Amino acid sequence: xxxxxxxxxxxxxxxxxxxxxxxxxxxxxxxxxxxxxxxxxxxxxxxxxxxxxxxxxxxxxxxxxxxxxx
Length: 70
Description:
The model has no long low-confidence stretch (mean pLDDT 86). This protein is 29% helix and 21% strand. 29% of the residues are buried. It has a three-stranded antiparallel sheet. It is of the alpha+beta class.
């Protein structure tokens, strides 16, 4: 399951403060447990993503740096 940060915040009963550095990984862990999913990946735009899988600590995956554009 791959919600973005805003979708995750809306789905968590008691979301952490958005200023909290661990907000996305906390939400990923809570949503994985709530939904009974094997894994939840909360995307955070250009920052990267936070993955919570059963039996492991949450993992931060940074977004790659790219140059150029369309």
